[in-house]
Amino acid sequence: MSIKTIDPTLKTSPNGGGSLYAETVMIHPRSVKGKFRSAKWWVAVVLLAFWHLAPFLRWDRGPGAPNQAILADMAGRRGYFFFLEIWPQEVYYLTGLLFIAAISLFLMSSLAGRVWCGFLCWQTVYTDLFMLVERVVVGDRAKRMAMDRQKWNGDKIVKKTVVNLIWLVISAACGIAFTLFFGDAPTMLRDILTLEESVGTYSAIAIVGGFCFMLAGYAREQVCLYMCPYSRFQSAMFDEHSLIVGYEEHRGEPRQPFRKGSTFENRGHCIDCKMCVNACPTGIDIRDGIQMGCIGCALCIDACDSMMDKYNLPRGLIRWDSIANQAARAAGGQGKLRLVRTRTVIYVVILTLVGGLMVGSLASRKTTELSVQHERAPLFVQLSNGSIRNGYVLKISNMIREERSYALEVSGIDDVTFSVVGGPSNVTKTDLVIPADSVGAYNVFVTAPPAKLQGKRTALAFTLTEKSGERPTRVESMFAAPDQ
Ligand code: SF4
Ligand code: SF4
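A: This is the predicted complex of the input protein with iron/sulfur cluster.
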C-alpha cells in the first residue's frame, strides 16, 4: 500500500523549487468534541495513572524481600513483577515480552491501523496533555496562533512562562515516576522531594523529564514524522482490509463551501470547512489520501462528524474503515469487516506460540541454577600418585527465600572423586547449604585416575539434587588430561 510522505509542517515543498530550506511551522490544532476525543482522554487518564501510581503498588513477598509490585532492583540485580522475580540470567523473559509486544503492535496495526500512535503512545499522550495546558492558559487554536504571530509583550511573556512552568512540572513528574520503578517508591519520593536522593537519580529525572519537555512541548508531530521509525514501516503492516482513518472521496467530492439557501444536490458533502485539517495534530489534510503524517488519532472524524450533524448529513464522511469497504461503498455496495485474514492469523499464531512458550517455561521454572566454569590456568595438574586433577568454579543460585540443602555429585568418569575448597576432600558426594535468595560460589577440584579417561577430553557432569524434591539440576562439562 503506498503512503504519501508529505511533511505538512513545511512552508515550502522540498520539491517546489527555490530554497531547499523550509522553516517548520508550529501546529496548533483546534479542540474538538466527540467519541474519539473522549476515548483518547480516557486512555490518557488510565496510562498516566498507571505510570504515576504503579510504583506505589505493593506485593507481599515475605520478610526481607522488597514489597514493591513492579521493581527493577539494580543493586540487588533483580526484576520484580508482582509474583514474578526475574534473576539476571533469566533476562530472556524480557526478550520474550518485547517480542510479544512487537507482534502485538503488528497485529494491532494490521487490524486497526495506527491505533497505537493515535491513542496509546507516550508521545501522543503527553503532547495531548501539553496542548491542553496551552489551551487552558492561552486559548484555543486561533488565540495560540495569534500569540505566536504577535510581538513579545507583557501578556505573551506571562502566558508563555506559565505554560512552560506547568510543562516543567508535568515533565518533572514524568521523570520522577520513571525513577520510582528503580527503588522503594515511597522512600525515594520522600528523598527526592527533600533533596536527599543521589546525583544519579536527579540526573535520570533531568534526562527523562527533559526529553518529555522537549518532545511533547516543542518537537510534537516532528517526532512522529522524523524520529519514530514506526511511521516509516507501518505501510508494510496494512492491507486493504486494515481499518484506517480515511476520507470518503466518492461522497465528499466535488467539495465546495455551503452557501445559505443552497442544497447538497449535484455536489459532494464536503463543505471545505477545513475543520478536519485544523483539528489534526500533525497538520495534514486527510482528504489528500493516506499519508505517513496521519497518526490515526481520529480527531478529524470527530471534527467532520460535528459538521455533518450541523448540516443534517449522515456522519462518517471521514471514518475509520478499510480501503476495501470504502471502494465497495464508492461502487454502490456495502462494506464488510474482515478481521480474519492471513496476516492477522499468522500474528495470532505467533503470539499464541510465544505466549504459550513463556507461560510453559514460567510454570516449569526451576528455582535452582547451577553454573560450572572449568579453570583454564592450568587446565589440569598431574598429582604425585599419577592421577589427574582439574579445577572448577561452581555457582549455585538458590532462587527462593529459604535456605536450601543440595547434594552435589560428579559423574561420567569411573572412580572420580572431588574436593570442595574449605569443605570435604576426596568424596563422591557432599551436601552444600545455600542461604536464602543467594548465590553460593565454590572452588571444586575433581580427581580421576588416568586409566579411566578417554584422551585429552573426557565428558563429566555435575548434578545438584535439592533435598526437598525439586528435580535435579545437571550441567555437562569436560575433564582435561595430557596426551597419553
Ligand atoms: S488525519 Fe485525522 S487521524 Fe490522521 S493525524 Fe490528522 S486528525 Fe489524526
Ligand atoms: S471537516 Fe469534513 S466537511 Fe469539513 S473540510 Fe473536512 S472533510 Fe470536508
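The domain at 368-480 is CATH 2.60.40.10 (Immunoglobulin-like). The longest strand covers residues 388-398.
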